[in-house]
């Protein structure tokens, strides 16, 4: 049974028809902002701030690799969305560690 209800999240155009470039642009902007915020915390806890920045940068590199290496469109877009989400979660987690320490 094909579910083509346009109001469902999994049927949105960003996860069905995009080629992935939009995800890379958003991911790049997010990565720059996340790394910038984390590096501002470096005087407080350099290990967590720099480590978080490295992980965020690696996740963005993974987004680039997925964009050009994964062939099935829907899988590629889902992976890009997941990597962007993980990038944001890592940033929030690192900030919480710095702020609560």
Automatic annotation (TrEMBL):
Keyword Transmembrane: yes
Keywords per UniProt: Membrane, Transmembrane, Transmembrane helix
Transmembrane segments: 21-41, 47-70, 77-100
Superkingdom of the source species: Bacteria
Name the UniProt record assigns to this protein: Uncharacterized protein
